[in-house]
Amino acid sequence: MLLLLNEVEIFAGENLLLKIDDLELEGRSGMLIIGQSSSGKSLLLKTIFGEYKNYQGEVLINDSSPFSFSRRKSMILIERVPHLLPRSSVWSNLILPFNKLSRRHRQRLTELSDIAGVNNLFDLPASEISYSQMKLLEIIRAVVQQPFLILIDDIDTYFDEPTLKIAGTILDNAVSAGTAVLATGKARVGEFNKVFKLNNGELVAI
To answer: How many domains does the chain have?
Structure first.
């Protein structure tokens, strides 16, 4: 099992925000968690990613704690705020995570950029492209890195419906290569193997 949450309680200060009795995610699969603002979606992803520690219970990534696992190699978290260098070119931002850009990396980045329709933007500064294009860049470079798990916060706020389908196609490439995808959103979107809804602080399969 790639991801396992068992009897997890996530707190905001001293207040219980979210309770998850059991949640499992295997490799080569996708999961969507639906919830409104302030429902705990973002804190859940940060807990899995190892950035948030105000919780009780068991969180395991490949049978290891997210605090002991190498996050760089195992997980990538895509948040609502773009993590790009605004003055650097689109291409420079795409290759930023790679210490040595292999032929395979270059080919995959180019192929997925073609699917996303951003391959004609490589020379532009990142500050000159749209928000949705920025998020597509982040998804592309995450997929090419081939982590065990990609976490995406509020995916339905990034894109209109046609662009969301493009993002889904790119993420399908990740799943086919063995990566698992866990996304959150405010509504049911895309094609995910499992869909859950946050309801009164608890997770319910739908």
So the answer is: 1
